[in-house]
Structures are given as structure tokens and as C-alpha cells.
Amino acid sequence: MQRMAADLLGNVLLLLVALLLVLLNGFFVAAEFALFKLRHTQAVGLAQTNGWHGRLLLGVHAHLDAYLSACQLGITLASLGLGWVGEPAFAHLLQPLFDTLGLSPEAAQFTALAIAFSLISFLHIVLGELAPKTMAIRRPERMSLWTAAPLYVFYWLMYPAIGVLNTSANRFLRLLGWDEVEHHSHRYSREELMLIVGRQDPNAVAPDQGLALMSHALELPDMVAGDLMRPRASICAACAKA
Fold first, then answer.
1. Which keywords fit this entry according to its UniProt record (predicted)?
2. At what angle do helices 131-138 and 2-37 cross, to 10 degrees?
């Protein structure tokens, strides 16, 4: 009886650890998407208005690739730990139930493992992936501020491992011919800027002249001098002394 109570307590503790790992996975997912979604101008603004939290976030965002690697390492460790701890704990709790239903030990074990795998996968996808990802995409500034400090601590705790992983990944990219790999996620091309500037407010009474001016300025590289010149015969002029 005491052994059964000890086993039950151990499984409950393992379930709590599994839940903690799900939340930890969600934290790293939220940090990753929030940092990637956050623009540099937003990070600068947060640094000016949020004290040391904002300044820390700006420093993190300035080394985006390194901290995204930290997020990936955290997600991987949390996911591996969840599979190692959560599934056996659920299975051990469910197996006595199937034993009482008259299933053979093999069938009871298989059924318990299948249901445990489904439950862990559901929690991992919903609470550890989809929910934090949606929160980070909708509120990147708030989530970035909230996750910057813990992520900063994790990055320096795992710095040797992150360094080895980044070096290995960069060398693999060089083997594929990617010698110069830079991060340009927050730089818009001229075509993208033209699309952004070209979006007029449908409720506006008159076209925005400022947007029109910027749109024409972006078209200048496609023009030649002749497009900007008018033949002398087409010019109407008046004498200044008249």
C-alpha cells in the first residue's frame, strides 16, 4: 500500500514537471516569435521608455541570431524533457485503469502509452506552441519585454553550447556555399516600400499628397532624364517684367 502511494506521488510529481516543461517550451516559443516580429525601431522606442528592461531588450535584439539560437536550444531541451518525463508518467497513471477493464498486460500498456502520447502531444502543441506563438505575434512589444531578461540569463548560462551549435551551423552553411549570411529580416525592399506607401486610406476624403510624393520618389530609379524633361516648345512662359 505504501509502495502504491509512493508510486502515485512520484507520477504526480512527474506530471507537474511535465507541465512545467510545457510552459517552459511555450516561453521559448513566445520569445522567439516576439523577437523575430519586433522591428528595430520598436526596440529603440522601448529602450527609451522602459528603463533597464527596454535597454536590455535592445541589446538582445541587436544580436538577434544568437538569441534565436538560444530559443531553439531551449525549445529542443524542453521538448526532449517532456517526452522523457511526461509520457511515462501519464502511462503509469492510466495503465491500472485498463488493467481493471480486463485487458491483457500488453494491451493495457499499449493503450496507456497511446493515450499518454496523445495527451502530451495535445498539451505540447496547444500550450507549448500555438498559444504562445499567437500571443507573441499579436503583442510582440509586450512579450519581448517580458521574455528579454530570462532569455538573457539563459543565453549566458548556455553560452558554450550555443557557441558550438552556431559555429557548427555556420560551417555547414559554408559547405553549401553560403559564405556571407546576414540577417535582413527588418529591411524592406524598394518594391515592398512602394506597396506600403501605395496603400491609401479608403475612408480618406482626398488622396494623401505626402504618400503620393513618397511613391513618386521611389519611382525615380526607374526613370531617365528624358522622363523629367519637357520640350521647350511645350512650355508656356511669361516675361518677368511684364
1. Membrane, Transmembrane, Transmembrane helix
2. 30
CB contact at 8 A, 147 and 30: yes
CA 94 to chain centre: 35
Q: Are 197 and 216 in contact (CB under 8 A)?
A: no
Task: Give which of 71, 47, 45, 76 is closest to 59, Cα–Cα.
Answer: 47
Which residues are CB-contacts of 132 (< 8 A; sequence separation ≥ 6)?
A: 26, 27, 29, 30, 33
pLDDT values of the chain reduced to their tens digit, one per residue, 242 residues: 556 566 667 777 888 888 999 999 999 999 999 999 998 889 999 999 999 999 999 999 999 989 999 999 999 999 999 888 877 777 777 777 776 777 777 777 778 788 888 888 898 999 999 999 999 999 999 999 999 999 999 999 999 999 999 999 889 988 888 765 455 445 666 666 667 666 655 555 455 666 667 766 766 666 665 656 667 677 777 776 65
Residue holding cell 531553439?
A: 72
Task: Map grid coordinates 510545457 to a residue.
Answer: 22
Question: In terms of Cα–Cα distance, which of 89, 75, 93, 70 is closest to 17?
Answer: 89
The H-or-E segment that residue 12 falls in is: helix 2-37
Name the CA radius of gyration of the chain, rounded. 29
Q: Give the cell for residue 98.
A: 485498463
| Cα distances (Å, whole numbers) of residue 215 to 112, 197, 203 | 63, 6, 19
Hunting for cell 516543461 — which residue is that? Answer: 21
